Every structure is written in C-alpha cells, then in structure tokens.
Amino acid sequence: MAAFESGNGELGELRRLLSESQRIVAFTGAGISTESGIPDFRSPGGIWSRIKPITFQEFMASEEARLEDWRRRFEMNRVYGDARPNIAHLALAHLVAEGRSPGVVTQNIDGLHVRGGLAPERLVELHGNATRAHCLACRRHYELDAIEDRIAAEGRAPRCEDCGGFIKSAIVSFGEQMPEDEMRRAFELAEECDLMLVLGSSLQVQPAASVPLVAKRAGARLVILNREATPLDEVSELALQGEIGATLAGVFPQLIGEHH
Ligand code: APR
Predict the structure, then answer these.
(1) Known catalytic membership, residue 127
(2) What is the pLDDT of residues 213-257, one digit of tens each?
(3) CA-CA distances (angstroms) from residue 110 to 15, 40, 45, 138, 235?
(4) Separation of 211 CA from ligand 1 center, angstroms?
(5) Are 220 and 195 within 8 A, CB to CB?
(6) Which of 91, 162, 227, 260 has the most Cβ atoms closer than 10 angstroms to its Cβ?
(7) How far apart are CA 103 and CA 189, in angstroms?
(8) Which residue's C-alpha comes closest to atom 21 of ligand 1?
(9) Rounded to an integer, what distance in angstroms lies between the CA atom of residue 260 and that of residue 256?
(10) Closest CA to 221 of 190, 184, 259
C-alpha cells in the first residue's frame, strides 16, 4: 500500500479504484451506521464499553441471561427503528442497482442496508437479523412483537410452543454457530469480486473478518475505509482513515441529500 497524504490524494485514489472495478463487493460493519445514530461496538463509548456481550453458552445456561438478551434486543430494535439509512447505505444500493456490485456482505443487524434501497436478496447478513426469532431446537419462526408481549405477560423467557425449546432472536451471539448459507454466500462473493470495499469494521471478529482476506487471496483489490487502523490495512491497496459519510459524499456527490 502506497502511503498517501490525507485529502485529495486518497479520495482520488478511491475514485480511481472504484471506477476501474466492475464487480465491487462491500463488506460492512457497525461503523457504517454510526452516522445514522446507532453506536458501534469498539469505539470509545461503543456498546462493549458499556455492557458485556451475552454468549450463546450463557443464554442456554441462565434464565436471567435470556431475559437480559431479550431486553437488549427490544431496546436496540427501538434505536434501529428511529435510525435512517445514510449516504453509505444509499451508495452501496446504488452500485448494486447500476450493476457494478453483485451484493453486500454485512456484519450488521440494523436493517439499514435494505431500508437504504438494497434488494434483500443482494444482502448477506453474517450475524443474523434483529427482526426475526426462532426456536433453537426446531427452528420454528417467531415474530418479535408477539415475543415481547409474551415476556411482559409471563415474566419469563419464551419457549417454543411446538417443542419446548428456547426461542432466541435470529442474531448470532458470541459462541453461537455461524449461519452456513450466509458464510458460503459471503465467500462466493469474495471469490468473484474484483474489489472488496471494507466500510466501518475493526475486522476483529472471526470468521467474518476472514471474508476480505479471501477476496484478496482470490485476486481482488482490497480497499478499507475506516476511522481507525485495521489488521488488514497492510495488505490493502488503499486503507483510508476517515469518516465514511464525508468520504463517500466526495465519491457519490449525486447521492447527497437523497433519502429513502
Ligand atoms: N466513519 C468511519 N469509521 C467509523 C465510523 C465512521 N463514521 N464510525 C465508526 N467507525 C469505525 C470504528 O473506528 C471501528 O473501527 O468502525 C469500526 C467499527 O468496529 P466495531 O465497533 O468493532 O464493529 P464491527 O467491526 O462491525 O464488529 C464486528 O463484533 O460485536 C460483534 O457481532 C458484532 O457484528 C459485530 C462484530
């Protein structure tokens, strides 16, 4: 990676790399949604600086952990509901719509990619989706609103009406099995793209953070746009440290002020 002074050099380089690419796949993290008002996890003041993650094992072992997991879910879903997609979400949907991107791989669960106009079938959600829930034993689907009412009424974590198994929101917790189909689709996109654009991820969590490396090894160019350094910066063509919104406004000025 050539060392660029900040400013037009990097923006010009980002524009050039994007304009030379026909199969751009974005890999996004929580940093793409902070400008929509949703806190990320590892920035100062981020979610993990305030609370500890509930692991899958804790969820299975403790009624108290299950109730706390649900409480957090409903609280965060209200934050997601108030948030609006920002220019980064619009830009990625725009690239897909104009045929220059086969899809987006995200670690996020906030639903902003689809609300920003990305076709759902073009989105790979590696860490699940905050609007769905299922029984861990028989995989039966449950609606979140009904779950919230049941917990308010019964005061305990819900179990499956069919098999008695624990119901959990469809979000991948630390220690939980990754969704096989999504991982396979993510690696397929990584292998077919000619440029992987990482937006707003600290690239600390495996196996998700291996996706950009698979793209690089398959011959794609790697571009990282993040406020801080990441472990893959030194293998990238361009690691641009800056604000995602301001940077992409410089690349997609036509999208400034557009709202979904
Ligand atoms: N512009 C540029 N970068 C930003 C911005 C912004 N507006 N806001 C935040 N960032 C950067 C932060 O500096 C940080 O490096 O985005 C990165 C977000 O990193 P994390 O908080 O670690 O989020 P993420 O990489 O998505 O975490 C991966 O970990 O907690 C689990 O399952 C959770 O999906 C999540 C996974």
Answers:
(1) yes
(2) 999 999 999 999 999 999 999 999 999 999 999 999 999 999 988
(3) 28, 11, 19, 25, 29
(4) 16
(5) yes
(6) 91
(7) 7
(8) 41
(9) 12
(10) 190
Cα–Cα distance measured from residue 172 to residue 35, given in angstroms and rounded to the nearest whole number: 24
- The pLDDT, as a whole number, for residue 170 is 95
Pairing of β 238-241 and β 221-226:
parallel
Ligand 1 neighbourhood includes 34 CB (under 6 angstroms): yes
Angle, nearest 10°, between helix axes 244-251 and 87-97?
A: 40
128 Cβ closer than 6 Å to some ligand 1 atom:
no
- The string of pLDDT tens digits covering residues 27-70 is 999 999 999 999 999 999 999 999 999 999 999 999 999 999 99
The H-assigned helical ranges of the chain are: 8-19, 56-61, 63-82, 87-97, 112-115, 144-154, 180-192, 211-217, 244-251
The mean predicted confidence, pLDDT, of the chain is: 95
* The pLDDT of residue 117: 98
Cα 29 to Cα 26, 126, 159, 253: the distances in Å are 10, 10, 31, 23
Q: Is residue 165 within 6 Å of ligand 1 at its C-beta? A: no
- Give helix then strand counts, H and E, for the chain: 9, 9
Percent residues over pLDDT 90 in the chain: 93
Of 150, 226, 102, 48, which Cα lies nearest the Cα of 209?
A: 226
Tokens linked to 119: 């076709």
Looking at residue 28, its amino acid is T
Express as a percent the part of the chain with pLDDT over 70: 96
pLDDT surpasses 70 at 6: no
Task: Tell me the residue type at 223.
Answer: V
Phi and psi at residue 101, in whole multiples of 5°?
-145, 125
